[in-house]
Amino acid sequence: MSLLSIRNLSVTLDGRPVLESIDLEIERGEIVGLSGESGSGKSLTALAILGLLPTGAAVRGSVRFADTELVGAGERALGEVRGRGIGIVFQEPATALNPLMTIGAQVAETARVHGALSAAAARERAAATLRRVGLDPERVSLDRYPQQLSGGQRQRVAIAMAIALAPRLLIADEPTTALDVTTQAQILDLLVGLATADGMALVLITHDLAVVAGIAARLAILEAGRIVEQGATRAMLSAPRHPYTRELVRNFTLPDSAPRPTPTAAPLLEAFGLVRSYSAARTRFFGRPARRVAVNGVSLSVAPGERVGLVGESGSGKSTLVRALLGLETADAGAVRIGGESLTGATAAATRQLRRTVQAVFQDPYGSLNPRHRIGRIVAEPLHLLAEAPSIADRDRRVAAALTAVGLAPADAARRPHEFSGGQRQRIAIARALVVEPRLVILDEAVSALDASLRAQILTLLMELSAARELAYLFVSHDLAVVRAVTDRMLVMQAGSIVEEGPTAEVLDNPRHAYTRELVAATPNLERALAGILPRVTPA
């Protein structure tokens, strides 16, 4: 008998179908992938299994875990299964973890609630579990709070909470989204290692086909709440039968950027010896505060129309460098020039003009758009950088032109962010950057949280805008496939310094620096995964 048997599972939310006739079997110790675009029903399937659907949901069909039917079960019966029988790791640990509780208390809580342990025994269990997931309490104190940890460390805490009682099935819902490639590989190695060591079944929910091809024996593809194809992972992705699966594979495999002539014009953006440091928590001798150097003597340039990539792990200094380039933070040393004009010490009027030349698109369109404002007001925000305030008619014309340029309708200006999908929200963020007609756009992980189809749409849009407007781009990303597809030249950043740079294809195909070689080796690749060649990563 299967460990988990899902038969004819259908779910409606307020009368609207969201899952239809889901059939899926999970065997003991098996690793199964669930994949599909955003909104396809992957996360809803996980929530339906555990009885965690929102108010207004109606469920039909059967979800049987071992000998227990979960559909229609009471809260007491479901509580016995959650944590002890089935553990779950949610997508975003920053929101899944309680910021007011220490990590030790959160892992211990799982053990206490389900295991009837004393406080001392639960804390001991928490320490042992955190050690299993690579967080040795001697190095990472149980008394630290989630916000004091890196993204990868927070995800390890979430995994520790899920496995504290040795469940027979672990559901991991997008556990590596927005993590850099080496941290992603470490988390995946950890999940597979735990499943193998404990004989635990693992359901991996992800839109990353290269990830699932590397570790899952079987794969189910969801589209609009239905499983449209399932089978052996590598065979299915090598020769997909369903048109939707073929489209996913096609969108996931990004083409290399076409070679372009080396720019000869004077640089549009230049940085010289930038240094940025912060006060550390501990102090040096005589009470003087120690400094943590986030950016250490970085110099770079971007020419008009050039597309440059900037890659590195989380904590390498990429985002701090971007803030310094945008003038959002003041560097301790060094200088930034835009169009030959210094950003440091510029007058208010000159600063407005320089910031009009360089605009930014950030990672999370949910967080970067004010939910209270209409789209027209959001897109018009940068217009204050113009030398003269535009009239209402001119403002509306500029907003309409920007929305049209990114494939939206001028009428969308009257709507609010919650009325749009994730890909549409990122288009709105791009429209906001374009409304003042900049010459350079800095994109900070602008497609990292999007599924393959949306990512392909946004990248195609960016390339079309680059060609039509001769826009220069600085792509900040941990996704080497994106960097290869859309940049002419790339820089690799480690511990605040640029350790390698050159033409993108040359750097990625023949990396000279050991750190670059590690990034390339750790990057999931669909073709290599289908051939059985898995990412290599140095253990944390």
What's this entry about, in short?
With 540 residues, the protein is of the alpha/beta class. It has 21 helices and 20 strands. 37% of the residues lie in helices and 25% in strands.
List descriptors.
single chain; 540 residues; alpha/beta; 6-stranded mixed β-sheet; 37% helix; 25% strand; globular; disordered C terminus
The class by helix and strand makeup works out as alpha/beta
Unreliable parts = 536-540
Shape: globular
Mean pLDDT: 89
Tell me the radius of gyration.
25 Å
Helix content: 25-40%
Terminal residue distance:
38 Å
Number of helices: 21
In spatial order, strands of the major sheet run 6-7-8-3-9-10
The fraction of residues assigned to DSSP E strands is 15-25%
- Biggest β-sheet, characterized? 6 strands, mixed
- Strand tally is 20
Care to describe what's here?
Helix 16 runs parallel beside helix 17 (452-469). It contains 21 helices and 20 strands. Strands 6-7-8-3-9-10 form a six-stranded mixed sheet, sandwiched between helices. Strands 16-17-18-13-19-20 form a six-stranded mixed sheet, with helices on both faces. The chain is globular and about 70 Å long. A hairpin with a 2-residue loop joins strand 1 and strand 2 (16-26). The protein is an alpha/beta fold.
